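Problem 12. The chain below contains 145 residues. Write out its predicted structure in C-alpha cell notation.
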Amino acid sequence: MIRFAAALALAPVLAQAQEVQPCDWQASAWNLAEPWEENIRTFANGAVRLALLDTIEPAAAAFHLLILSPPYAELGDRQCRTIGYQGAGFSGADFAALTAGYDPAVGLIFTLPVQVYDADTAGFVGRALRVTLNQATGAIGTALQ
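Solution.
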C-alpha cells in the first residue's frame, strides 16, 4: 500500500515530465536528425508533420519531437511545437517505431518509444511517449508511459 501511495504522489510529476513548447532553437533545421527521410513523417494529407530533432547536447537528453500542425495562422503557417523532457530532451527515440492512430473524440494519437535518463542509476529507461493532437484547436497532450 505504501508503494501505491508513493506512486500516486509521483504521478503528477511523471505526467508533467514531458513538455510541449513553442518552437525555439531546438527546432532549427540543423537539428533535424539524419538521415532526414527516415526521421520525418507526414500525416493528415500532409497537414501534420513530425520530425525527430537531435540537438547533440546535452548528450543524455538531446532528442526532441517536432510537430508542425494546424491550426493555421493568418499567413497560412502551421503551429510549431517541440516536445522534450524535464527542460531538455529525451535520451533516445526510435522514430522508425512511431505509430499513429485517430480517435474522433481525441484527434490524432502518436506513440513514440523514447528513452529517458535516470540520474539515480546513471542509466537509461525505456518509455512510450503518447502524443495527442487536435487539429481544430491545436491542443497537444502528452503522456509518458
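Discussion. The radius of gyration is 16 Å. Students who got a different answer should revisit the alignment rule from Section 12.3.
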